[in-house]
Every structure is written in structure tokens, then in C-alpha cells.
Fold this protein.
Amino acid sequence: MTMMMASRIPQSEETGGPTPEQARKGRRTAFLLLAFGFGPMILATVMFYTGWLNPAGHTNQGTLIEPAVPAADLHLETLSGEPFADRFNVSEAEPQWQLLVAAGACESRCEELLYLARQANIALGKNANRVSRAAVLGSITGDLAARWPTEYRLMERLVPAPGSTPAWPAGINPEKEPRIMLIDPFGNVMMHYGPENSGKDMLKDLKHLLKLSLVG
């Protein structure tokens, strides 16, 4: 009798593992979580690039980077040595979009972009916390360094990782012309802006993307 009962016990109960049915349910649950988590972001990106499902269509104000470049290719890190790309981990509780200002010697045009990124971020109002700001600058003036703690205290400083050179997207050379790059919550460098763009241009793109996206 004892042997018959033992033979009827599912193998998973003997080993402590899940039954085949439990495994199937687990896979379905994981798939649904993935779809709900990443689906809106993927859909938002497709809609933004193509104007799909947008009756009025949409023309981006910034310059699209096609194909998008992974943030890891930039080889940047924080002043404390933390890899910049690590913050785009999909497990982040509150993923954010990122405005990254890049320049060689930060002079007048560079400062214009620092100001532009700051003001566009602030102008998002209640959605301002969905976007963060950072800058990678070859050098700054003593005047800007003195003003940084008050005017740009929320703009993180980044530097190239030791022994590496940033692989900037095609068409971007911060040493010759400062740019603002827009990075999505998954770490894709997807768009860039320069002195030819206005704050309204960037704000329009940001509002449109944040409206479509449920991630970041």
C-alpha cells in the first residue's frame, strides 16, 4: 500500500521542483509580465518613428539616430566610477529617459545646450522626474565650474571610462559641435539635438514620447 501511494506522488513533490503544469503557468506569467512591461515602450517607439495610429502624423524635431546606439557603446562612467550604461538595467524600479549633453571644451554653444536641456526638463512639469540629465564635457571654464552647484546641480557629470574612447553615433562629434542626445529607458541613444534646435523642439518630442510610453 505504501509503495502504491508513493508511486502516485508526482515526481516534483519528491524533488521539490514544480510540476509541468506549474512550469507552464510560470512561463505564461513571465511572458505576460514581459509584454506589459516592454510592450508599451516598443509600441511607443514604433509609433513615434512612423506616425502609426497617429491621425495627425508626427515629425520629430530632433535628428533620429538610425539604428539606435546602445549606451554601453559610449563607454562612460560617473565620477565615482559607476558605468553609465548600468542605470538602464531593465530591473530598475523607476526607469528614466536621459538627456545627455556632450561637448569638448564647453564654451558658449555648449552652455546654450546645458541651459536648453535644463529648461526643457523643468518644463515637463509633473513629468519632469521621468527624465534625468547628465553631461560629458572635455573642459569647462572657471566661471561655469563656480555656477555649476547652483545652476546645474541636478545635471550629473560623466567621464570616459579609463582606457576607452566614446563611440559616438554616426554624425556626432562633440569635439567639433556640442550635442544633446536623448536616450530611452532601455539604453538606446535614439535622437540628438544641437544649437539649431529650440527648447520648444525638444519639449515637443519629449512630451510626445512620454505620452506614448508607459515605461520611464
About this structure: Confidence is low (pLDDT under 50) at residues 1-15, 31-39, 47-56. The chain is about 40% helix and 20% strand. The beta strands are 63-70, 76-78, 97-106, 131-140, 155-160, 179-183, 188-193. The radius of gyration is 23 Å.
